[in-house]
């Protein structure tokens, strides 16, 4: 008898010497590995037969449902060890599994029979070699694997195996024979083993490998999912009218929203402009109404009619039979405590009794809570009213937020919106998120990373750099509570034939007409120079208060004090003059006259005081209608507080009069310069008229003469209407209309009502169901001129031509305007965007904007009126704006590409989970699939030749910086020339590519497989791919080490020793896809 310690003397070496041609083997062991076959291949190929008994139930055909998890997993592990156990990772990572499996399967078919113990009884493990003249037994032998043979270390502290010679060995042979023939104890499983091994070398469909990968990555999601948080189909919501109107991508979103609302109490739906967020939200509302929940929709006033229509029994309500019954209130109603909104009496309304609040355009709440006033007059803004009265009080309220632009200036925008979902109390969400850090810390870290990133050189300010600097907790949190898909995403990952296509965007037309064609008149540059000299001191009387009198007028307890408010208004007015000049000469002229009138009245008051009469200066206030919509949303208009008049005796009115007088002279000069520019000589207006005439004469979609014109100012809209309407009627017999949101519209059609909805229905009859609403009215409107009151939430896709008569300072607004006609399911083949720019060089234009912004930021302007130089950070921002605006001149940009920095589109992983959920309904055997499978797919522009590896990390110490969202899984796309194409820190990007390459390809591409097999000699020569795998692991290790060292150098406590990854042995290969 000999003893092997499997270190100095190994079982494998002894078997190599012992087994001869013609011998028979009997093995009783827990599992069988193809790598053990490979280790003894030469000897095993020569034997007569091998009988193998699995000592515990393995590969049995399941009669009962899956056993309890704790019994099922060991059994699965025994079955999967065919392809190598966890201690044979190194061998599996050589990628020769396919070739070995094929050879092993051929050998088994000729020489091996497998039987499995069907009882719960235990059996010892051993291996007997039976020769014609004797027998040798090796015992104990737990498994037939390379670690039990002594080729690999395994996890044995001590592994002693005895070699037992005859005659004692005969006892083992006799006992084996006795059990082998007992039908009550054993069942034949040879076919199942062959099937199992064959799976390792069959050609695989790309789709199958995709699901194997996401099954492994998101497997826990399946076990976590409880019926409580999944949409309850018993409600019948899938039979509703609204559900059946949704496209697939909207259904995916609706189900995911319900899941998130149930689990986290809140969700932001941030799909891009024109992807039908309203319909998705209506399906969610219907689901909750079927469960007898009360729902409130909070929307901007201009979108009220949209929401009200879907709940009324109107002819044009496509889902009238769903009988929706939610309440609709406006964002502004949150500031009111009496009066009525529609049919709702606000004084009696029980705000705290809503189970679900849907907030449309939720970015209006991005600035969070704030107080104004003092003492008894102190009150919170709309955000605080919403948080305290609607969400915190009364019954538990879920919050669904809709916005195409939830992040405008930084992640605090997002935080304020999400706080509504967890009532501003982090404890309500921290445990549910399952992140290492609390939500406050996650946002703080993300904002720090964002601030750092925003100071980078514009070339380095890439989304990729930002994503790399955020930690995985941030992605996990976003993934938990947001859904965001872009148009590109829908096009790429959904079946567009079912959806109908997006219209093709033609390259934008960029027009730069001069101010006028008069030879004597001025141009933009000269006006800009004069504008820069204005002080606009009329808006800041408190700057001229005598020091001893300031306290009388400035109450420090008010959060926007009077001086701050005044300088804010002055800044707005200065920017407003520029914006109005860019809009139209007419609008600029009106504003110059208004401001000059105000200044001249003030000068007259001061002069009268000096000659002994009235001595009070009335507080100046400004009307909202002066401004464009973005400016109107500033706090000045919400928290105006009490106006305080100023006694001239408390002022240095002499200096003030001097400044006022300077401004009055400049304005006088400006008015003189532009007074000759009548409509006939207004080059911009004439350019527009020619443009519309050309479009009407030569429509590019059959007979479509419609034109939608936007301006930021209602004055400009009115001016254009008076010029365009008669021209179109006389020249072409076409009707024109205008809407500004502040008053009723105007139109050349004779109508009893010119409300906004009637006008929009006549302008876009198909999308607005005119045939149902006004079946007897043949009239149609072809030209619509509007302010931004219709730039959000309206579907005007009958039109194919959108003109920005002025370029809005916020590029997102331009994209939103175009989104009215650039919509899914449009009947137009192509659509055109036209942008009017001021006739001035872009650099100069931006520098000017920057100077105005910076100059007016100084809360008290220096008495000399010197320009403040632009600080470097602002210069960086101007560079960035320039880049954005340059892009807008050349292409139609999607909102997510315009977001300064991060769009949350880049981050969510929900659709992959939903893919998996759907797939496992009809394929429940993914847990049996061997690791190491591969598929071969055809590449494309986004997917160059290379390999996508999905690895599982076996070292618990890794991922210290919490950067990899998928840990312990690592996905890397490496090109054939050993360059990382997408690294493991961009899981969303890589999964998107992976999904696009594989999903829907349910059959192998046999031609590509044939090429791959020829190249690798049927999987025997995998050295190229094995090298790529080594390179991939090295890239993961290096990135981890870089992160650890960065943290170490920046003073964070990091144990460098604990984070080491030794390399290949720390990872096992789940599967891989070769891209050809």
Question: Could you explain the architecture of this structure?
Answer:
The chain is α/β, with parallel strands linked by helices and 1076 residues long. Helix content is 42%, strand content 13%. The chain is built from 41 helices and 33 strands. Strands 1-7-6-5-2-3-4-8 form an eight-stranded mixed sheet. The longest helix is centred in the last third of the chain and has 27 residues, at 1023-1049. The protein is elongated, with a radius of gyration of 37 Å. 43% of the residues are buried. Mean pLDDT is 81; it is low at 62-73, 634-642, 855-878 and 1045-1061.
Distance between the termini: 56 Å
The largest beta-sheet arranges its strands as 1-7-6-5-2-3-4-8
Strand tally is 33
Shape: elongated
Category from helices, strands and their pairing: alpha/beta
Radius of gyration: 37 Å
Q: Which bin fits the share of residues in helices? A: 40-55%
Average predicted confidence as pLDDT? 81
What low-confidence regions span 5 or more consecutive residues with pLDDT below 50?
62-73, 634-642, 855-878, 1045-1061
Task: Please outline the major beta sheet.
Answer: 8 strands, mixed
Strand content: 5-15%
Number of helices: 41
């Amino acid at each position: 008898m000999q003893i092997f310690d499997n270190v100095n003397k190994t079982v494998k070496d002894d078997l190599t010497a012992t087994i001869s041609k013609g011998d028979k083997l009997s093995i009783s062991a827990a599992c069988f590995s193809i790598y053990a076959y490979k280790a003894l291949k030469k000897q095993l190929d020569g034997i007569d037969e091998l009988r193998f008994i699995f000592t515990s139930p393995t590969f049995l055909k399941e009669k009962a449902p899956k056993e309890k998890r704790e019994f099922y997993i060991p059994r699965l592990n025994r079955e999967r060890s065919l392809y190598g156990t966890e201690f044979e990772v190194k061998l599996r990572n050589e990628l020769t599994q396919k070739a070995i499996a094929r050879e092993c399967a051929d050998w088994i078919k000729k020489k091996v029979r497998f039987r499995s113990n069907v009882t719960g009884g235990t059996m010892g493990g051993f291996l007997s070699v039976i020769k014609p003249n004797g027998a040798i037994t090796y015992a104990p032998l737990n498994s037939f694997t390379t670690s039990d043979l002594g080729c690999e270390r395994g996890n044995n502290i001590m592994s002693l195996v005895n070699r037992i010679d005859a005659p004692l060995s005969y006892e083992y042979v006799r006992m084996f024979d006795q059990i082998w023939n007992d039908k009550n104890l054993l069942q034949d499983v040879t076919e199942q083993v062959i099937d199992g091994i064959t799976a390792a070398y069959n050609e695989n469909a790309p789709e199958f490998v995709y699901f194997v990968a996401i099954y492994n990555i998101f497997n826990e999601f399946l076990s976590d999912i409880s019926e409580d948080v999944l949409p309850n189909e018993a409600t019948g919501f899938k039979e509703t009218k609204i559900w059946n109107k949704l496209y697939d991508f909207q259904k995916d979103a609706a189900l995911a929203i319900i899941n998130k609302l149930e689990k986290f109490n809140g969700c932001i739906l941030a799909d891009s402009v024109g992807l039908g967020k309203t319909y998705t939200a209506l399906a969610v509302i219907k689901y909750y109404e079927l469960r007898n929940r009360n729902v409130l929709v909070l929307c901007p006033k201009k979108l009220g009619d949209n929401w009200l229509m879907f709940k009324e029994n109107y002819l044009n309500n496509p889902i009238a039979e769903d009988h929706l019954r939610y309440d609709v209130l406006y964002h502004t109603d949150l500031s009111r405590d009496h009066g009525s909104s529609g049919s709702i009496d606000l004084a009696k309304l029980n705000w705290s009794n809503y189970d679900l609040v849907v907030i449309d355009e939720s970015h209006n709440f991005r600035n969070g809570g704030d107080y104004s006033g003092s003492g008894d007059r102190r009150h919170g803004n709309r955000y605080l009213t919403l948080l305290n009265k609607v969400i915190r009080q009364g019954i538990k309220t879920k919050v669904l937020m809709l916005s195409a632009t939830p992040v405008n200036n930084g992640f605090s925008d997002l935080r304020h919106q999400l706080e509504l979902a967890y009532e501003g109390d982090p404890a309500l969400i921290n445990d549910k998120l399952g992140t290492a850090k609390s939500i406050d810390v996650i946002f703080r870290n993300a904002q720090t990373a964002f601030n750092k990133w925003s100071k980078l050189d514009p070339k380095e300010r890439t989304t990729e750099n930002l994503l790399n600097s955020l930690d995985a907790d941030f992605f996990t949190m976003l993934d938990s509570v947001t859904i965001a898909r872009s148009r590109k995403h829908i096009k790429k990952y959904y079946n567009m034939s079912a959806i109908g296509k997006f219209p093709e965007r033609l390259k934008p037309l960029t027009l730069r007409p001069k101010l006028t064609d008069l030879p004597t008149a001025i141009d933009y540059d000269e006006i800009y120079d004069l504008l820069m000299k204005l002080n606009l001191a009329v808006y800041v009387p408190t700057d001229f208060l005598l020091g001893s009198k300031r306290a009388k007028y400035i109450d420090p307890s008010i959060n926007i004090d009077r001086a701050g408010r005044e300088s804010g208004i002055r800044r707005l007015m200065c920017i407003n003059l520029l914006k109005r000049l860019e809009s139209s000469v007419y609008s600029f002229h009106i504003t110059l006259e208004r401001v000059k009138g105000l200044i001249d009245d003030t000068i007259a008051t001061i002069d009268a005081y000096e000659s002994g009469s009235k001595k009070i200066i009335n507080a100046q206030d400004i009307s909202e209608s002066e401004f464009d919509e973005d400016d109107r949303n500033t706090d000045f208009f919400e928290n105006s507080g009490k106006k305080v008049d100023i006694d001239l005796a408390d002022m240095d009115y002499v200096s003030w009069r001097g400044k006022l007088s300077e401004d009055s002279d400049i304005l006088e000069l400006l008015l003189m310069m532009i007074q000759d520019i009548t409509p006939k000589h207004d080059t911009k207006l004439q350019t527009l008229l020619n443009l519309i005439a050309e479009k009407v004469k030569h429509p590019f979609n059959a007979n479509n003469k419609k034109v939608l014109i936007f301006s930021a100012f209602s004055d400009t809209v009115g001016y254009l209407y008076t010029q365009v309407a008669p021209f179109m009627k006389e020249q072409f017999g076409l009707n024109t209309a205008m809407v500004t949101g502040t008053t009723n519209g105007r139109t050349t059609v004779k109508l009893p009502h010119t409300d906004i909805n009637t006008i929009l229905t006549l302008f876009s009859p198909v999308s607005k169901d005119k045939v149902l609403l006004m079946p007897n009215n043949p009239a149609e409107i072809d030209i619509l001129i509007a302010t931004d009151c219709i730039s959000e939430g309206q579907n005007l896709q009958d039109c194919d031509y959108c003109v920005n008569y002025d370029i809005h300072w916020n590029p997102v607004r331009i994209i939103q305007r175009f989104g009215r006609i650039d919509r899914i399911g449009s009947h137009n083949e192509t659509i055109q965007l036209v942008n009017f720019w001021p006739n001035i060089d872009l650099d100069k234009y931006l520098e000017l904007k920057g100077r105005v912004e910076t100059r007016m930021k100084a809360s008290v302007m220096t008495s000399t009126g010197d320009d403040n130089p632009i600080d470097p950070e602002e210069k960086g921002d101007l560079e960035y704006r320039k880049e954005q605006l340059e892009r807008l001149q050349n292409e139609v940009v999607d909102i997510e590409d315009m977001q300064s920095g991060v769009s949350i589109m880049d981050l969510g992983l929900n659709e992959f989970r939903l893919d998996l959920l759907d797939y496992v309904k009809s394929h429940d055997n993914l847990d049996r699939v061997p690791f190491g499978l591969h598929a071969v797919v055809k590449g494309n522009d986004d997917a160059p030749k290379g390999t996508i590896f999905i690895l599982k990390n076996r070292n618990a110490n890794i991922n210290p910086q919490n950067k990899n969202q998928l840990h312990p899984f690592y996905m890397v796309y490496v090109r054939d020339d050993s360059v990382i194409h997408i690294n493991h820190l961009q899981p969303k990007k890589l999964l998107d590519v992976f999904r696009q390459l594989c999903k829907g390809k349910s059959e192998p591409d046999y031609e590509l497989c044939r090429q791959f097999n020829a190249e690798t000699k049927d999987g025997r020569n995998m050295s190229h791919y094995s090298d790529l795998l080594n390179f991939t692991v090295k890239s993961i290790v290096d990135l981890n080490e870089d992160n650890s060292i960065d943290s170490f150098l920046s003073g964070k406590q990091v144990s460098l020793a604990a984070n080491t990854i030794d390399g290949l042995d720390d990872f096992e290969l789940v599967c891989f896809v070769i891209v050809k």
